[in-house]
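cache lookup: miss for this entity combination. No prior model stored, computing from scratch. Input as submitted by user K.M.:
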Amino acid sequence: METHEVYAIVAVGLFAIGLAAVFLCERFFKKIIATKILGGGVFLLLVSIAERDALEFADPVPHAMVITGIVVAVSAAAFALALARRIRLQSGQDRFGGEDDA
Amino acid sequence: MTALLLLKNLPAWLVILPIAGGVVTFLLPPKARGPAGLVFAWLTTSLAVLAGAVIAGGGSLSHALGGWPPPLGIGLKLDGLSAVFILMTGLVGGVVSFYARVYFDKVVENPARASMFWPLWLLLWAGLNGMYLAEDLFNLYVVIEVVGIAAVALAVLSGKNPAMVAGLRYLLAAIVGSLAYLMGVALIFGATGALDIGLAAAALETGPTAKIAFALILAGLMVKTAVFPLHFWLPPAHSSAEPPVSAILSALVLKGTFFIILRLWVEMFGVSLTFAAGQVLGALGAVAVIWGSFQALRQQRLKLVIAHSSVAQIGYLFLLFPLITVPLGMAQTPDWTVFAWTGAIYQVLAHGFAKAAFFLGVGVLVIAVGNDHKDSLLNMVGRLPMTTFAIGLAGVSLIGLPPSGGFLAKWMLLKAVFASGQWWWVPFILVGSLLTAGYVFMILRLAFAPALKETPLRPVPPGLQACALVLAIAAIVVALPAEWVTGLLEGTSGFGNAVEMISGGGEELP
Amino acid sequence: MMWIILLILFPLFAAALAVRHPKVSGQLMPFVPLPALVFSVLADTGWEPVVLEWVLLESQLGLTPTTAPFLAFSALLWCLAGWMAAALARVESGQRRFTFFWHLALTGNLGLILAMDVITFYSFFALMTFSAYGLVVERATPEARRAGRIYLYLAVMAEAMILVAFLLAAFDAESLSIIDLRGAAVDSPYRNWITGLVLTGFGVKAGIIPLHFWLPLAHPVAPAPASAVLSGTMIKAGLLGWILFLPVAVGGAGWGTTMIGLGMATAVFGVVLGLPQQSPKTVLAYSSVSQMGVMLSVVGLGFSAPELRTTVILIVFYYACNHGLAKGSLFLGTALLASNHSPVQHRHWLLVGLALPAFAIAGAPLTAGATVKSAVSTAYVMVLPPGPSLALGVLLGVSAVGTVALMGRFGVLVFRRLNETTCGGEASSPARPPWLPWSVSVAVALLVPPLMIAWFGLKPEGKPILAAWVDAAWPVVAGVLLLLGLQAWARHHGVLSIPPGEVVSSLASWIRPVGLSASEYAHRKSNHPVSVEGGGLLSKIHTGMSRSEAFLRRREVTAIVLVVLLLLLWSLF
């Protein structure tokens, strides 16, 4: 098995773990971490794609995508954390209130 | 010369101008943000109108950012379809901006905090225009994220706890949706080495990779479009935001991701599309129509009524997909696809105007009465006649009564449904209309009923009432230039096209 | 002929005027329909429809020999009722809303008659239907709001049915013009569907049993002028809808029989259900139901003999015109019941003035009603084989007798009202009751229908004078006897009372949980979810829906839904 294949399999695993965790975890903080794992899976897949038969060298485009993606993901996560913190400070709430929080 | 340059680079300006506006208003002191933001908003509206006028002559306008053509550079393309979406965004955005200027200046308690509305809203607007113009899958991911984050930030602007909790839910859903989309894009890039939609579609072959990529992209975008049963985040988020924000979220933001789905469905998914895939999307839309309308009917708070109604109205849009997915070799022949397209686009327009009018009108009510419970509506017809009238008109369009945009939308959709022989969508469309009539008339009936005891109304700045009315009238009169809009759309390459499904998954259509 | 648009813009403008200047707009009420009236009488009908390319999907307006008479008598009644409303308005306050909806409904009514294409027709039909809601709930009493609610439910359902019928027909039609659409409907594979939907959809407006129950609730609760136009002209929009859109073709005899049967059932039961009513206006509303039944049966004749379509339309129009003007005049007269300090001799005049149009509806000798009834029975004989035509003739006779009794019942109730010291019927009592507009309306109701025959060249079948007299007179005698008998029976055995809108009382418990009324609502705690103590089917759905929405929001469910959707899409692509 080649290196990039191992990467790809790990990436899919991370994606699945992240996806499950983001829904199943209860606390805001864990949910946000789960989105990071989800994003990690996607970025890892992109990195593994850089290895392509047609090219002699690693394709730079996926790397550019990963860098952009990381920037976007970091800001989203920062925003989410800030929100969660504000909610915590305001009401002490650290999870969605079950069925009737709408 | 300058004018020519502006026209040639119009697609770029449509994105750059609001971004510039966002940056400028962010740097300005809070007091100056409102006036400056309104100037930028209206400039963007005029650009949108200009885009409509330019494209009305036929053809499309392509722009390669930085002069680098794809595959290396990023392409922007303005055609009839995107022009209609941009125009709708521009018109609704222009009116909502004016409302927001008055609202955040005169009504809210903390104008300094509320002034952050302007940078966020202009950024969101830039992102939406980007969605309608981008030719590039990864670029789309970036604008999806920009729109998502800006939308959530707007939704929590009030700083109240329910809004923030709803906003966090919205944000998590948005992140999951966009990452699923990016995962799909990564797979497509891995298979084709291209990110430009046209190039990738040309290089793509059917197979497991393409299929899982499509599924991820579609599911991700459906989360963001709040299609049943993935609409869980929408009602709390849309109903707890400030009125102009609710209007933007419901009327405009949902349409962006719908546009991307539509675009990819027609231009890319064709390589491995089945009859059943179209049917599933249609079925989800049909259930959404019933589900959302029924939920709207049983809500006690007006903003929740409207938010659930959005779920239903978005459902109508998804009826387009089964109708434009046709058997192999038939892509040129069916005559109903144009009806289906026109119906769906009109649904976008009518819902955009009507829903914005609805939220702005209820905003006026909240200012006047202090809450948005159904019973604060009592005797509104005598006390806030203009707003009641606006809500009534918007309701007429939502139900689909003539002569409104909503009527044209449903008429065209039904026509396409009958012509295609997929009659099983008929009951959903009609029952949806009946249920919509149920909650709209419930609202009007309460507005007509005498109040047991009249609480004094707080003064409402007159401009706010007018904004709701203008948008409501737009939801009606948008039906008038039907020929013009159809003409505009028919000039586009994608419009009216059917997608051929490659394998069965369902029996041949009659 | 471009200025045909003005006929519609004029009332629309008056409606807009009502927002700022309700007084001025109110004063305009009698004059706004005048141009349409003049136009319908003077304009010839041979010209091409005006096409407004920029409105909807090419709106077309025009006037045909079929629609011109409808326009004439509708505009006429709107004028008279508007005059009455304006006269009453001088003493009533809060006229803005009423004037606004009045003019909108008028726009809709005129527009649907002038429409030459389906979408325009449908638009104006909807405009009229929903503006009429504003007229029905004008009084804002609990009964008015209940009636308005039921009216809306049925109206929306009817709109949906009509829309589907139009769509089915439009599928094969060359254009959206009404003529093309009807032509396409005749050859359409969905012809039966279209016929059924058009029949039912417009049947709601026309008050055909069993869809009639909103009508005796809604027509009487409106102020008198509004009742007059509701029962006089707006109800006829349903009739016009049938005439314009029913795909009459050879081989449609089954539908013809159905319609004749439904019509006759309505004609008879409308009377039967109306006789025990306690309010004069409700009695009038039931009489409208019954009369629309007769008209439906005549439309049904057209199905049995398509070649006689033109004749049938003439008869129906004539019937509608007579009934519309007379019924309008009767409703307008009820406004005068409130004037409880008018001198005694005025009361006698009121009774006489009400009796005349009532005779016209009942078809007493010398009235236009007699001519119409004889034309109807002649049509039965012409179209149907002897057996059925005889049976129908008998039924028509029964309904005629019943109508006389019903009109008599109306008279009795009016008489009682006049003798009571306080009158509950009308909300206010004008200091100077508007006698003039009402007297004119009585004169119009008596004289115009015969004049209209002459003007539009309609010739009902002639009969020997004496025979015609006898034909017309025996139902009157029998009807009076029937009424006397019933009154005597009621005196001995107590009054049989049927609540207005009988059917709906059983439906009401079913509908309630969703359509909470405003007053109920006002008593409810604000944040309280809709209570489910009703236990009906709908409330069960309610609980179910709210539970399942919460269910969908649970985290594990969301996760599963997303994964299932992913897998589903994957497998389907």
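stored under new cache key. The helical segments of chain A are 3-24, 28-49, 60-91.
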